[in-house]
Write a structure and sequence with these properties.
With about 200 residues, the protein is an alpha/beta fold. It is about 30% helix and about 25% strand. A seven-stranded mixed beta sheet has the order 1-2-7-6-5-3-4.
Length: about 200
């Protein structure tokens, strides 16, 4: 199962209209799903519900392309990865490595010096939490930036994104292979090869 994101950075989980329904879904995954991937807001929701880790507001919003270090280099999740990989982030929320490390059932898998924790998982590999966006298209950050401009939010320019920080220039994608490897490795090693035939 994949539990994905929502533009709810500054909204507490209890104030989200469908929080009770999402809680029931996340509880259901414990007994009916072999492996769950939580993405973006979904990762913060999962960490809060399953492990009582509270998200923190981040101002200004984190937006751009950041380099990441693979911590668990022997993990099948990173098979084919370089030691350093690039991925977009777009969020005004964060959790810290210290919060993850304080929970024995969790481990940090990849971090960014600028963007913080990018990937974490449970030690038993049943839950993954991804705060970056390797699935983004080339223009996703551009469209989000333009959307926020239109709303009068005065957003910062996404870092390391537009060549020469010129929004009129097309971004150069340096994260596409990361997105493809991450999803295919997760599906192969943590879903297809490890799901028991008799659940």
């Amino acid at each position: 199962m994949i539990i994905t994101g929502a533009p709810l950075d500054f909204v507490s989980f209890e104030e989200v209209d469908y929080w009770e329904e999402l809680k029931r879904i996340m509880e259901w995954t414990k007994t009916h799903v072999h492996c769950t991937l939580h993405s973006c807001w979904g990762s913060f929701a999962g960490l809060y519900y399953h492990h009582n880790i509270r998200k923190r507001d981040r101002v200004p919003k984190l937006s751009g392309i950041y380099s990441h270090e693979v911590i668990k280099k022997n993990s099948p999740l990173f098979r084919g990865f370089d030691d350093v990989f690039y991925a977009p982030h777009s969020r005004a929320t964060e959790i810290t490595a210290e919060q993850i490390q304080a929970v024995p059932e969790l481990e940090v898998m990849a971090v960014s010096e600028e963007a913080g924790v990018a990937i974490a998982k449970t030690v038993d590999s049943r839950q993954f939490f991804i705060t970056c966006h390797p699935e983004y298209d080339s223009d996703t950050l551009k469209l989000e930036y333009e959307r926020d401009l239109e709303k009068g939010m005065d957003p910062l320019l996404p870092v390391n994104y537009f060549p020469g920080d010129d929004p009129s220039k097309a971004p150069i994608v340096n994260w596409r292979s990361t997105g493809q490897l991450l999803l295919s490795n997760w599906l192969n090693y943590y879903v297809y090869q490890s799901t028991p035939y008799k659940l």
